[in-house]
# Entry
Amino acid sequence: MAKPTLLVLAAGMGSRYGGLKQIDALGPNGETIIDYSIYDAIRAGFGKVVMVIRKSIEDEFKQVFFKKYSGKIEIEYVLQEIEYVPQGASYHPERIKPWGTAHAVLMADGVINEPFCVINGDDFYGADAFKQMAAFLGQQKTDASSYCMVGYHLARTLSDYGFVSRGICETDREQMLLKVTECTQIKRIGSVICYKDVQEVNQPLPEDQIVSMNFWGFTPAYFKDLKVSFEKFIKTHGGNLKSELYIPTVLSELIEEKKATVKVLSSTAEWFGITYKEDRSFVVDRLKKLTKEGVYPSPLW
# Structure
């Protein structure tokens, strides 16, 4: 059976961060967060890495990533651009915002032909999460619609410097995903974690609420349904300047229509990431601590 592939979503514009956080040197020896994810993926048994980037950052990514992985793991990239939409589809000519994470994954259709894991390029997920993911994907046939995600407790995914958006997960007793609801403007207010509803009213969320941090496991069968979902989306929302189609939105529809199942995996891994520039110092300190504890070698490569 083929080794799973790691699909890294790294085409984000980094507007809140003020730069390309995907290639920011954060580790003790200038490592990026993506470097740590690839390192953990290799240890877990992944055989290939595919990055989703934009034309405007293509040269920078080649310089930062591609030489260092020679002989370590197969690596390639695909481009995500606004104009990459189904033939005949139209959209607002002033659109500058990408179409969202579902569209980013769709860019890898035809490049990935084995079970694969999707991650954000600016999130640290931890070694155990990759082990759990690899074990699940290793049991899946390429035409199966049995997917998975690694969930994290909400309280451990917040930023001290501003609001965050998270996919709030609803599961059954067997930890099968029932629904994902995208909640925005989540922040701790006093001792309570809150999000703002459609009426802009703060609503409480539990500390141990399981959330999606875009750590998904799929088979190639997902691309067929994803293509259909995006075609519907672009017909309805193509004229909107800011509309996006997210992975959880597509999955929620597939689950409701009984076209797919999603297992929520538990993990002992620690998550952290960079949303705002102020988050950077915490990430730098945390990576330094993990290196000092011997969790990662120094230098990483």
The CA atoms of residues 126 and 269 lie 5 Å apart.
